[in-house]
Amino acid sequence: MTSDRETGETAPGSAGRPLRVLGFAGSLRLGSYNRAALRAAVELAPEGMVVETFDIAGIPLYSADTEAGGLPGPVEEMSARVTAADAVLIVTPEYNYSIPGVLKNAIDWCSRHPQKPFAGKPVAIMGASAGNLGTVRAQMHLRQVFVFLNVIPLNKPEVFIARAHEKFDGEGRLVDQTTRAQIRALLEALAAWTRTLRRD
């Protein structure tokens, strides 16, 4: 991995440049708890970090026939933004004990990009659900996908937002202070992890 000293770039998270994290949620529902959790992450980003967001709603269903005509514009945009980010934050619901099809589809499209945007990228996960386990199984399945993508996942801390309907208010704002502290701790750990990797 090329160091900032070798490239002459300003280190991410330094006084000269904030660490840029690209976040996206694996849900298309506008009022989803996972979209709301992503908004909370934007709000809770520690000093020296900026969490930007991308909406996967415009990513078409993967087809080799479509790919043969060139990568669709939304796929190119997502791939470029993942590539440009210092780290990635994925916020996933849990559907039938696994990750949503729309999230897997977006990841699959990006994996087809010649630049392999996810390779070597620090990635953190969190997720929200109305159940008692808070997307534990979906997050484990997402980590399996990470192996092929060759990302460098942040293992701890883990953020499982269980009984999400009790943690957000009617306007989608995260009001549970314990969960807010967990998300803040996750972002701080992601910042430290990213800086460690860049020093290597």
The outline comes out as globular
CATH topology group:
Rossmann fold
**CATH first level: which class?**
Alpha Beta
Structural class: alpha/beta
Overview of the structural elements:
This protein is α/β, with parallel strands linked by helices and 200 residues long. The protein has a single domain (27-35, 42-181), classed as Flavodoxin domain (Rossmann fold, 3-Layer(aba) Sandwich). Helix content is 40%, strand content 14%. It is built from seven helices and six strands. The chain has helices at residues 4-7, 33-44, 64-68, 73-84, 101-111, 136-149, 177-199; strands at residues 19-25, 49-53, 87-91, 122-128, 152-153, 159-161. Strands 1, 2, 3, 4, 5 and 6 form a six-stranded parallel beta sheet that branches. α6 links the parallel β4 and β5 (152-153). The protein is globular, with a radius of gyration of 16 Å. It starts with a helix and ends with a helix. The model is unreliable at 1-7 (pLDDT under 50).
